[in-house]
Amino acid sequence: MSSPRILVVDDEPDLRELLEITLLKMGLDVDSAATVREARALLGQKAYALVLTDMRLPDGLGLELVREVAANHKSTPVAVITAYGSAENAVVALKAGAFDYVSKPVVLDDLRAMVRAALKLSDPAAAPAHVDAGGASRLIGQSPAMQALRAQIARLARSQAPIAINGESGSGKELAAREIHAQGARAGKPFVAVNCGAIPEALMEAEFFGYRKGAFTGANDERDGFFQAANGGTLMLDEVADLPLAMQVKLLRAIQERRVRKIGATVEEPVDVRIISATHKDLARCVENGSFRQDLFYRLNVIELTLPPLRERLDDLPLLVDAILARLAGPGGARLGPGVLEALRGYAFPGNVRELENVLERALAFADDGVIEAGDLQLKGAKLGDAGVVPQGEGAPAAQPPAAAPEPEPAAPPPAADALPSNLPDYLSQVERDIILRALNQTQFNRTQAASLLGISVRQLRYQMQKLGIHAPEP
After folding, report:
1. What is the C-alpha to C-alpha distance for residues 459 and 473, in angstroms, rounded to an integer?
2. Which one, of 345, 336, 347, lies nearest residue 380 by Cα?
3. What is the CATH number of domain 144-306?
4. Residue 332 and residue 251: Cα distance in Å, rounded?
5. pTM, entire model
6. Greater confidence, 386 or 468?
């Protein structure tokens, strides 16, 4: 059985020889070319498991080869060699369809790791299955939107380019990121998901990059950070728009140079991670208002993946409901009564699939003998077609929020001291809504300060605002 064949395209004889020797020692067959013309001739004669090309060649640009290979040899990964510090060139190549890149001077360990990852994609027998360990796809649904999403994920999994996942809260951004990881060449390596909005600013550098023993008071042992934990695999930066500007600078350097320095260390150490970022906000708008660095946005937003909200794929409700109930109650442990699916189809689900899970879990608690009736759902407001039902952040396609801070709706009169409320869930929801609105109005709708006043996390506050239909005033 013949060894995989690699095509090396570079006009520097010394570098070309170094690459050939390195690849031959890995047991690979190698062809080399010094120009775009020579490379095209070889591509027309032989099939390659990987094309590795310099960006600048005597008769053209390596970018031309990237586009041609991506268009005409779809099963062949192509990687580029860029000059040190030319992150912009690398981003352009990744956008054009490059699998990955290496920087000059070439670090041979990085080159070998990249080649091994590319060979996994070229070998159909080594390709990971499109399912999780349980044997089922993470992304449930057969609607056209979900079929298109899965097809796009299958394509993205073949690349090492950074991906920015956009979508409303609860729409499954982490599930999509895990699916990309599971279908790619890094499937056997770690997947580390980080909620950027949940880390105190003072601890961010230590959490991301790690620290040496004795680096600061309390550093009794050496510790790896998120980058080291995800080495060889995928690092997902959830709610990346919540990163403070000071941390954005350090993150940008780590992504560009593929090296990190632990707190207290004097040297940097190499890391090999694929970055997937996610947010419910509009990062482009965050760049415009100065809360997010443009260079980091450019580096993270190489490929965009947008998740559809649940209200745009209601045909998937039966499959989603069956899967959720099977997880909550076991196979056959719960079923829907008459009119339940119709009631769910008429609801806008501002919290998306996560809200559907919460609705069904609550309904199951009220159900008799495992039969969920329409009344058990307790769906309030947010009907399809209502204005202002999408409580997402800056990036969500929601109806216009109210111009002024909303005042608490008149609450039902509290029951007398010796009486009980006629509808306990509605009564408690109104009380909760009133308290959250008071905290938000007191802090001029600063969610971080309001969450602190209430003793909950910002993520919990955001979810409660979605559930209760509370919107921030328009600036």
Report:
1. 19
2. 347
3. 3.40.50.300
4. 48
5. 0.71
6. 468
